[in-house]
Amino acid sequence: MSIKAFYLELKKGLPAPAYLLHAEDAALLKEAVMGVKASVPKEDRDFKYHPYDLDSPDDSPPLEHIIDTLNSVPFMGGRQTVTMENLQKLKAADIMPLVNYLLSPSPDSALVLTYSGKPRKTLVDKLKGVKSIAIGIREQDLPFWVKERAASRGVELTGGAIEYLIGTVGTDPGLLASEVEKFASFSLGSSGGSGKMVKVDKDEVASLITGSGESTPWKLTDALKAGKADEAFRVYAILKQTMEPYGLLGVLNWHYGRMRMSPAQKTRVFGLLNDADLKVKSTGGVYPLEHLLAKLLKAT
Description:
By secondary structure, the protein is of the alpha/beta class. Helices cover about 55% and strands about 10% of the residues. The protein has three domains: about 5-135, Rossmann fold (3-Layer(aba) Sandwich); about 140-210, Orthogonal Bundle (Helicase, Ruva Protein, domain 3); about 215-300.
């Protein structure tokens, strides 16, 4: 399973009585808990959302108190949601109240447990009826994850925007998350703080990534394809001020992947791109990219 599986559970309203989310990456677990909180309407959170953290003295009352909360009837009816983070901090000798609760869980509560690392088999065996989900991000789930993460921050990314983002930035979740945060800041300014969802398309993503509305990546590839050396290096000089070499290589890969070229041209172009990528990794700096541009001008 993956974080996508958990987001789908959230969309269904957490139908299972209890979930055990585990991951090596604590940031992904924290994101999942934030998703749980966001799924509860703001006006209901004071009495239908109860967060606990076993790694925090301020948010970790006795386990019996948490069980009492789970067994309580939510104010104004409906179901309540209880999160208990860092289950790995709970001593084996202290777990029986939770084990007993799970034998007959309350229909009025949804319990979400998080465990940093791989849960002990002895623990999993005791937690009867818990739906266990490994929180990870598979490459095929990246578009879904990017869309959901952006939406949770008030940004509606179009399909083209998501494809472009992943194609240029790459598949590293940390880098993608950083770009999504940039879009979220943009959306707050665009909405004037109204809280309304802001739609962001591919052109806006390109502008935000490069930091320049006038010199966009496709202007660079257009100049390269047309053999306009002066224009290509002028645009490149602007783009490199706000983009790292890896970002520019990602942009070039994405655009050339969608150009119409002969098989021989494709082989030549992607061979040059791959060679530049290896040189950037081994030597760093911008010189491999400048040499690449000169070669691409001749290749296309």
